[in-house]
Design goal:
The chain has 185 residues and is an alpha+beta fold. The protein is built from 3 helices and 11 strands. It starts with a strand and ends in a 12-residue tail after the last helix.
Length: 185
């Protein structure tokens, strides 16, 4: 295998691997996107409001509603990363954290995983501490209203965050997969 990099910065490394089949035949180049692992959180207040962020996303040229999220820094554990991201993006914190699930993001092309968490009894503890270039509006929405808006299409979450919402639903109701009950730890 031979590899070369077209892009290599702190956020993205785009690699092209040239592979060889076991019989020696050269295979078409395989692109690989190296990302740090990602984290996101469904943060619920004691009143069952969900903490959301609205953020401009240039790739789709629109402001998007999302769960607080970010990347795992080198040497950082996913839980520490999402606790940091929740505080930085929203000014909220929680002492009651649960891992909802983790999975490869896009194993056909990407190297990273996403870790989705649930934070209960989230509460404001300070102001935002945004990174340079970030413009994020953080706010609460009643969870029932949020779910209604997602179902109606008024809020369109990123696909990976929909998976986190499904994981939460499956754990809380045991109805995520017919015939399987998953106890919430």
């Amino acid at each position: 295998m031979r590899s070369s990099y077209a892009v290599a910065d702190q956020w993205l490394r785009l690699r092209k691997d040239v592979l060889q089949a076991p019989d020696g035949q050269a295979l078409p180049p395989c692109p690989v996107i190296e990302h740090p692992d990602w984290v996101d959180v469904i943060a619920l207040t004691a009143d069952l409001n969900i903490v959301l962020v609205d953020q401009y996303r240039h790739s789709v040229t629109s402001v998007r509603t999302e769960f607080p999220a970010g990347t795992v820094d080198d040497g950082e554990e996913p839980l520490a990363a999402i606790q940091r991201e929740l505080l930085e993006e929203t000014g909220y914190a929680s002492d009651d954290w649960h891992l909802l699930g983790s999975a490869p993001v896009y194993p056909a092309l990407q190297t990273n995983r996403i870790y989705s968490f649930l934070a209960l009894n989230a509460r404001p503890v300070g102001g935002q501490a945004l990174d340079e270039g970030e413009v994020i509006d953080a706010y609460e929405l009643p969870l029932a209203e949020f779910i209604e808006k997602v179902v109606a299409g008024a809020i369109e979450l990123p696909a990976l965050q929909l998976a986190g919402l499904w994981w939460l639903s499956a754990r809380l109701t045991g109805r995520g997969v017919p015939g399987i009950s998953i106890p919430f730890p």
